[in-house]
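Field reference: "sequence" (input) and "structure" (output). Example, DNA repair nuclease/redox regulator APEX1:
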Amino acid sequence: WVQEEAPDVLCLQETKCGVSAVPPEIRALPGLPHQFWASAEGRPGYSGVGLLAKTEPLNVTYGIGDPEHDADGRVVTAEFPSLFVVCAYVPNAGRGLVRLEPRMRFDTAFLEFLRRLDAQKPVLLCGDLNVAHAEIDLCHPRANRANPGFTPQEREGFTRLLGAGFVDSFRHLYPEARGAFTFWTYLGGARARNVGWRLDYAVVSQRLLGSLCDSKIRSTVAGSDHCPITALLAV
């Protein structure tokens, strides 16, 4: 699928894979020779992201400059001539919301990081942001108000991101689209019944909207409990 899609930049989240353990077939993906991997320090099989690019970035950084979160390997940022591409795997609030407070601290620190980038050049944020922002973004909103990914605190965190000059590209283009989900639990045949959540986003700086061509959810692509999304920008 990656070869057919032929992206300029491929962002992967929750890789659960240290740099030395990246499979050779990923290392050898045609057209994506520039690869940057982050993984959790001392926690094999936890978290992790990867950013793969067709052309070499001007600069690559890891983390958001916050020691509480950077050891988890959740963010890789690549600078290109016209924009920053940020690949992010936002923390889950956890069963019983046991990690909601650390999650909210991450949201605050991450927004400040994105603002600092945006002050330099436009930003494209791609990743599993672990929140369904509005009721339209999950199948059963009423039943999930106290569950991870749909608490008022997490939703407000995303609202603050939008209020800081960023745009949810999919909702900008398809404000009324229903059943547009990117995650389905493996339990109970949820994907076949489209009982899902939209947790994966391409978020852009407002000044990139003139360059936004499309934002697609590739819901027919199998291989994970999430599906890929694709942002198309003329930059």
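The two ends are 23 Å apart (CA to CA).
The first strand starts at residue 9 and ends at 13.
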